[in-house]
Amino acid sequence: MKARHRNILAVAAACALLVTGTDTAKAQIGVTKSQADWIVVAIAAIGAGIGLGIYFAVRPHGHTLTGCAGSGPDGPELASESDQQTYALTGEVAGIKPGERIRVYGKKGRKSVGAHAQFVVEKLNRDFGPCKAQPAMR
């Protein structure tokens, strides 16, 4: 588990302990049941907001595909290793060479009728060198 995740769990555990320890605080401060309920709701809302903020900050904003580049009738194509699908590449394709194993970053486009799915390349992430020869399928 990463240190950042452990810190988040430690803060969540500390908040949970604070919420469960309201009896002594209520006796000393004089908090009513209604006020205690609103405090719990506020802590839960803050926790949910922090959780959503972390999720949107950490999640990838695009897609990556890794596979073997080739040339098709409409331009460069990529045979994806993850979903065994062929994508017609558009966008920033100048550095893509047929026969190279590459990883590209971008967005999946709409699928045309009778054509491969499109992938709009925003960046060539990595070139792994030439593709390995694959045995012929019969």
CATH topology value of the largest domain: OB fold (Dihydrolipoamide Acetyltransferase, E2P)
Biggest β-sheet, characterized?
5 strands, mixed, barrel
Q: Which overall shape is indicated by the principal axes computed on the Cα atoms? A: elongated
| Arrangement of strands in the largest sheet | 1-2-3-5-4
The chain-level mean pLDDT equals 78
Helix content: 25-40%
Order of helices and strands: HHHEEEEE
Q: What is the percentage of strand-forming residues?
A: 25-35%
| Tally of alpha and pi helices | 3
Instruction: Give the uncertain stretches in residue-range form.
Output: none
Describe this structure in words.
The protein has 138 residues and is α+β, with helices and mostly antiparallel strands. It has 2 domains: 3-58; 63-130, Beta Barrel (OB fold (Dihydrolipoamide Acetyltransferase, E2P)), CATH 2.40.50. 38% of the residues lie in helices and 33% in strands. The chain has 3 helices and 5 strands, in the order αααβββββ. The protein has helices at 3-20, 22-29, 33-58, and strands at residues 63-72, 75-80, 86-91, 100-108, 117-130. A 5-stranded mixed β-barrel has the order 1-2-3-5-4.
